[in-house]
Design brief:
Thrombin, subunit H, 6-stranded antiparallel β-barrel, 2 helices, globular
Length: about 280
């Protein structure tokens, strides 16, 4: 079942319009960017939106946001699956387009069948403009760093030896690992029932437009979101919303391990990859 909205890359036939710094010169400083922020790729199409899963910095000290790769489509295969240093595709806060671009797409994977299959590299990297302020606190979720699984199975994307952040959360019957997610339905949590090459199935609900949105690991013993705590939760970033599939449960998420592993693998071949060494911001 197709769940995610696919939109075309906008303005790809236009020449790049200057550096990121120049593009941000008109921006008002201090705008906060956070997980679960809805994003669009053209103010003329406000209903063609996706969602931010995590914000932070990469090893090259660039401000970075992560979302889903299938939010953009590139039939020409000219722009997908390569770094885009030019300011070709702007990204806007859906709720505040008047601010101008909050960043520019630097990488997206445009995988065929990404919404019905378990493709492992369905992610997007956005370089945020210098004027924005990073925040670990979304409407419902506070991301407390990146998920690390010291004894977990390595992501299929991981170089050898894998880092702990490139290992997958267990989903066997004797595991009780759960995801907590945030999107248009509010905040939901549910057990991870399957792990197919680093794509998690879970009972945590999502809907169209939540693609790329945040999923954190529920820390054992930690509070569940409820009316008592204003539906808030905290945990390490564990992945992003991917799709609804024909399955039980039908909700699937791309693991943070798959994303981080692929970034490191690409950076080893071509140093300077946008997002390589990504860490979730510690800013409140």
């Amino acid at each position: 079942m197709r769940k995610r909205l696919i939109i075309s890359v906008l303005g790809v036939l236009l020449a790049a319009t200057g550096s990121l710094g120049a593009g941000s010169a008109q921006a008002e400083p201090g705008k906060r960017v956070f997980n679960a922020m809805q994003i669009i790729f053209s103010p003329a199409n406000p209903n063609a939106f996706c969602t931010i899963g995590a914000v932070g910095t990469d090893k090259y000290a660039r401000k970075i946001a992560v979302s889903a790769g299938h939010c953009l489509s590139d039939p020409s295969k000219k722009y997908a699956d390569r770094d885009l240093p030019e300011n070709i595709q702007p990204v806007y806060d859906r709720g505040d387009t008047g601010f101008g671009p909050i960043g520019y797409v630097r990488y997206f994977k445009d995988p065929e069948g990404s919404m019905t299959g378990h493709l492992t590299k369905d992610y997007m990297i956005i370089e945020l403009v210098p004027a924005v302020t990073l925040s670990s606190q979304g409407p419902h979720l506070k991301e407390t760093g990146v998920m690390e699984v010291p004894d977990g199975q390595p992501s299929p994307n991981a170089p050898n030896p894998p880092l702990d952040s490139e290992r997958l959360i267990g989903a066997a019957l004797n595991n009780t690992n759960e995801l907590v997610v945030s999107g248009q339905l509010g905040v939901w949590y549910g057990r991870i029932t399957s792990n197919s090459d680093g794509v998690y199935q879970s009972w945590a609900k999502n809907k169209a437009g939540d693609s790329g949105g945040p999923a954190v690991w529920h820390v054992p013993g930690g509070a569940y979101p409820s009316q008592d705590n204003n539906f808030q939760a905290a945990g390490p970033w564990a992945g992003i919303t991917k799709a609804i599939i024909l399955g039980v449960p039908q909700y699937v998420y791309t693991s943070s391990a798959n994303i981080l592993a692929d970034l490191r693998a690409r950076d080893a071949v071509h140093p300077g990859v946008y997002g390589a060494g990504f860490q979730v911001t510690g800013n409140p």
